[in-house]
Design brief:
about 350 residues; alpha/beta; Rossmann fold; 2 domains; seven-stranded parallel beta sheet; six-stranded parallel beta sheet
């Protein structure tokens, strides 16, 4: 494989995060459209990538694009261009929906072009940006051909109405709000169960332990479970095993998880944060509720738990909606267009 790319996408974080997931999913698709390689630690073997040392020593025979998604990556791009004199055009994608620090604003001003993952994120950049929504690889995320068999393989109850919430276990994700809703709803819906996947960091250990204690006191430890951090292929399989997805976050930059669930034919209940209002059609592919509104979250889940036929219809609509409007190929093409534009203007 030729490792002399026109575009380099750094990923300077070893552990799985939303940004890392974006790189891992997007680069293989973009590699079919342009010579692009990721770089950084901990990348899976199936993601086209080069070592950081190679990215820092590419020949100066032509301009290339350095596509950063974090402050550290913007800073490294500047070092490569200004100190090592590499011929990189600098591109930054921002998902943050908050005011940036002074250092971040300075880094943003040094970029040759900007992308925002939502109109809300663009409004905080103080410079023109192209809005490109994230997409989902619908070849990876798709309904299970036999969900009962899949559940058996995963050790999940074949008769359960299974709610999932995926991502790091912390207050930002509204995990406590979903647990609270579960404590109220599960006695009423005897088939309902909730699973969480995602890492519990040490600073969130007390938060998680308190939730586990509340679940145990309610006698629901076998129906509200924390599965921990799973390998990526297992996360995808757990999406496919669900009946309903919940994303009650208090804050999100973009928030891919409901989109991934919907691509698997699973309706989503989400708070009105991040890009969720853009992704979910309220009442058709799931429900939207106000952030930190525990009663509204509980009521929305109650509605979907009590209507098997409506869930099935919404799941089919969710899959169609993602395939039509949010396939990853659209995101990949839009970014490649920007790469070509940067490369065409030396």
């Amino acid at each position: 494989m030729d490792d002399t790319p026109l575009v380099v996408a750094p990923n300077l974080k070893r552990r799985l995060s939303g940004v890392t997931a974006t790189v891992v999913r997007l680069i293989p698709v973009q590699a079919r459209m342009i010579a692009i390689r990721a770089t950084g630690p901990g990348l899976p073997d199936d993601v086209p990538h080069i070592p950081l040392t190679r990215a820092a020593t590419l020949p100066r025979d032509r301009w290339r694009v350095w596509h950063a998604r974090r402050n550290t990556e913007m800073a490294l791009g500047l070092i490569l261009r200004r100190v090592l004199r590499r011929k990189y055009r600098l591109l930054f994608t921002s998902a943050a929906q908050r005011s940036h620090t002074g250092f971040t604003r300075w880094l943003i001003r040094q970029q040759d072009a900007l992308v925002a993952t939502s109109p809300q994120a663009a409004s905080y950049l103080e410079r023109p940006a192209t809005v490109i929504l994230h997409g989902v690889d619908t070849q990876v995320f798709h309904p299970a051909p036999d969900r009962a068999a899949l559940r058996a393989e995963l050790g999940l109850d074949s008769d359960a109405v299974l709610i999932g919430c995926f991502g790091r276990v912390r207050a930002q994700k509204g995990v406590d709000l979903l647990v609270q809703a579960g404590l109220e709803l599960l006695p009423k819906h005897p088939r309902a169960q909730i699973i969480f996947t995602g890492r519990i960091t040490q600073d969130n250990r007390a938060f998680a332990d308190d939730l586990l204690a509340r679940i145990k006191a309610a006698g629901l430890s076998d129906r509200i479970r924390f599965l921990g951090e799973l390998p990526w292929d297992q996360v995808v399989r757990h999406y496919q095993a669900l009946d309903l997805f919940a994303a009650p976050a208090r804050w999100e930059g973009f928030g891919l998880t409901p989109l991934e669930a919907m691509a698997c034919g699973v309706p989503a209940v989400a708070a009105r944060v991040g890009a969720y209002e853009t992704l979910i059609r309220d009442g058709e592919t799931g429900s939207l509720v106000s952030k930190e509104d525990a009663p509204a979250l509980t009521a929305a889940l109650d509605r979907w738990l009590g209507d098997d036929a409506a869930r099935a219809t919404a799941g089919r609509a969710a899959r169609d909606h993602v395939a039509t409007n949010h396939a990853i190929e659209g995101e990949a093409r839009a970014l490649v267009d920007i790469y070509h534009d940067l490369l065409a203007h030396p």
